[in-house]
């Protein structure tokens, strides 16, 4: 306890003393200023001076201190604060000397003078500003520290801006001859962030070689362009980039002996002229060491990264040793170095000459160097070197004579006089630019190259290099002599290769010595097949290649199997070739004994060119012997089709033939192919499928040349008849002419038809085929014409078709081939002109699409719609003759007929026992019926004729007019009926707006006929006008081969006289409105009406009328006596006397007709003056009378006169009686009765009573 007590007492006393001392410090301010001024040789001014105890150590603080040079007051050093730490024991002993000096917040300017000396501005008492100050006081024992101050670096050796370090902290520590310095500061923003510098120095710092030191430097985020510019490193020019660096250095005997450290940079742009290299990252560890006779630099973990290049963990070492004054040794060792990274850096650094930089740029090497070294011994007059190289994945571009290499691996060693290289490559390539167009791909490559330097130059060669490519395997031996005197390099190379794909042939040929045309040909020639083995020989100088003048030998020779050869565009390829292919110096030759082209077997083919670089044509010669069908295919696939297109497209061939070909294919633009061919036909068949025509047994030779096809006197057979065929070129066409005989018998067998039965005989004929040379177009089509005068051919058909065998009439049939449709034109003299068009159906066979059978001399024209049209002008058409010729016995339509349009004009249509003039029919088949218009002298309107008319379909006639001639007097000769049956008639509706009889319009006509099992029903037979109404219906039936016609109807007319006059039956009746009913029948057809066989009944009722052309005197006399005329006379009405004929007031009666005899028992005629009652028979068939007529006067002795009514003899007897009694006594008012018998022309009358 006493020790503690004593210590505390001493400490207390000491503190009291120190406090007392410190309170007195300010009194020594002036003394201290004077002392410091004297010590440092400058004027020192202290603004404020204080003291305090920091722990147990007294501390004096000098604030706002300024230091001015005594001789130059412009340089002033200002210090914010100086802290002086004192030892308490020294203070007690009176020794006031600081052991620690701290300077706070000052600005120190450090200048490097022009001569390299350093000066701290404000610390020099030398009048010359370019001399350094005395810093020996900084090396005195003690500890000095600068805190949070500014340091300015001024450099007169380099014309650069000042550098100002902010927030600088500096410490100096000196213990005897051991000195330590540490600086930490913030760099200017344009240079970097911060840096730290530490030095540990021992020895006499001011001596030239008696000190040692170790240093440490760390700088972060340094602006490389700014720093390197100040360091004056000319080899590199940085435009941008930031970096970090950390160094450890050693000085021994005042010399730098070792530097270790690491650096990294990012975003660096390295400039060289106008090019730049952007480096994303570069870093490395390094160690530099000074050796006795040189130095050594080792780099590890060398990393480099750009957009395209990455270098990871590389190592390299550079050792330079000065052996003596004249000799220097350089050793370089590298491992895992990216060649491209090094190349990029060297291209953008000023360490190589321009030529070497250009070489690196063009060569663009890349790959990796592994465990490689190079040792170079240099002297004044020569260099010796040796080294070993291990390349991995090496590649470079092709420049000049250096080939482009891709992904090569190899190991080799060499000296300046010899060397060797083992190549072991996988998935690589070699490209000899200018010689081969594409790189030669390599799957594997192995072998050893050796070289040595001799008296005359270098020898380079190999005993064996084996290469496997994707397409072929090769084994190569070569030797090259490179002469030192500049003579051309001599090459001796031999290569053997195995099987390969022929399609890749062009990839392995030296296209650089070939013309563009040959190169293009080789690119497309080999489409498939195998190269089954071959070899190559190259002997000669490089300069003489490809030995046009045979000064050397370059030969590639190989065999092929199953090759697909495309020798020219637009020509058929050759398949299955077994050939020998040879490239020899400038030429190429392919010879084949086996193959097939367009389905034809090849006898021999040779493909060749003498000068691959300069020849204009590729020559192809060969022979084919096979079925000519394949030859057709060959022509179709070749340019020959341009001159044979029509023949090739529309014909087929068969049979054996031989062909010799000589083809020249142009190798340059602007040239045309040259083709010569000779075909020997050995009994071939030529078929025109569209025409169903065959030319058989064709024999002879056909030639093809520049002008086209030609042949003379080919022998052939058409329809079993010999034909002589010639072929000749004619301008832009090829004309084939065949002359022979047209045999109707053979023709009818080839094309069977009922029409041939009336045609027979033979006639000379000419067949002409005109084929255009150019492509098919609307104007240039293949035209085929068959012509004959038909002399010797009889055609037994009615006019206008019929022809006698002795007569001549030109028949010309022509067609064109070349489109999907085939038009055919037929000219039969001036009688018939036909136009037909055949088109391909769904089964791709030609079928008739449309046709116009045109009668007359004018040409036919195809109808707009599909089908066959019958058109033209026919002078006379005899229906019966054509019915007999065509065996048409019934009025029926052929369902198989293709005629669906008609437009004909017939001057005379001759029907049995009648004819029709100027008949015009125009119509077409629409849907399932014919529709159209008919115009003739008898009718004018439209018709509708269904296809099923024969089976019950309804025929319709919608007419504007039906015209009939007026009735003629019966001459007693019945018309010969047509051989028609009731079942032959179709269902028929006839409607006509007008029924014309002569010039009279009787009104609208309506007829409806309907078929029944055993006949025909007349449903309607109407003629209606404002004046008349005739209606009827009936039937026509046939039973047990007996036919009968029945008709029942009525006639209502306002003027029977006008009606009878209109129809031409009677013109002597006026007025007489009538109502007639009838029910009649007769044997036979409706048109076979006979009054001798008619049966039935009829009623007649007429009103007032007048009978004309009766004896005028007789009528006037009896008219005066009429009781009913008295009133007219008193009224002065004498019209019945002055008018022509006699009048009647009423006629009424009923008739029963049996077998042509009409009987009546109630017929009477009333006139103004009398009444006639008639009973009895009238013989319609026998034309006789058997009647009893009673004449009863009404009011006088006059006797009425009756006339023939309705155009018949019903009242003829009464007229006769009246004429007989005229002139007798007429004053009696009694009746008379007469019996009338006899014929109509000469009746007999007998008066029975008065």
Judging from the principal axes of the Cα atoms, what is the shape?
elongated
Residue ranges: pLDDT <50 for 5 or more in a row? Answer: 1-17, 70-74, 122-132, 889-896, 1110-1139, 1196-1230
Look at the helices and sheets and give the structural class: mainly beta
Oligomer: single chain
| Mean pLDDT over the residues | 79
Q: What is the CA–CA distance across the termini? A: 218 Å
Q: Report the major sheet.
A: 68 strands, mixed
Beta strands, count: 71
Summarize this, please?
The protein has 16 helices and 71 strands.
Keywords:
mainly beta, 1250 residues, disordered N terminus, elongated, three-stranded antiparallel β-sheet, 68-stranded mixed β-sheet
Topology, pairings included?
Blueprint: H1 2-23, H2 29-40, E1 42-54, E2 57-69, E3 76-86, H3 88-93, E4 98-112, E5 118-120, E6 142-155, E7 163-175, E8 178-186, E9 194-203, E10 211-223, H4 224-231, E11 237-252, E12 255-272, E13 275-290, E14 294-305, E15 310-322, E16 328-335, E17 337-338, H5 339-347, H6 354-363, E18 366-369, E19 372-378, E20 383-396, E21 404-415, E22 418-431, E23 440-453, E24 457-468, E25 473-483, E26 490-497, E27 500-501, H7 516-525, E28 526-541, E29 553-565, E30 574-584, E31 587-597, E32 600-609, E33 617-627, H8 628-636, H9 641-649, E34 652-654, E35 656-666, E36 674-688, E37 693-704, E38 709-718, E39 721-730, E40 733-743, H10 744-750, E41 759-772, E42 782-788, E43 793-795, E44 811-817, E45 821-828, E46 832-840, E47 846-855, E48 867-878, H11 879-885, E49 899-911, E50 914-926, E51 929-935, E52 939-946, E53 954-964, E54 987-992, E55 995-997, E56 1000-1001, E57 1004-1012, E58 1015-1024, E59 1028-1039, E60 1042-1053, H12 1056-1063, E61 1069-1071, E62 1074-1083, E63 1095-1102, E64 1105-1107, H13 1112-1121, H14 1126-1130, H15 1135-1138, E65 1142-1144, ...
Parallel strand pairs: 4-6, 47-48, 48-49, 53-54, 53-55
Antiparallel strand pairs: 1-2, 2-3, 3-4, 4-5, 6-7, 7-8, 8-9, 9-10, 10-11, 11-12, 12-13, 13-14, 14-15, 15-16, 16-19, 17-18, 18-20, 19-20, 20-21, 21-22, 22-23, 23-24, 24-25, 25-26, 26-28, 27-28, 28-29, 29-30, 30-31, 31-32, 32-33, 33-35, 34-36, 35-36, 36-37, 37-38, 38-39, 39-40, 40-41, 41-42, ...
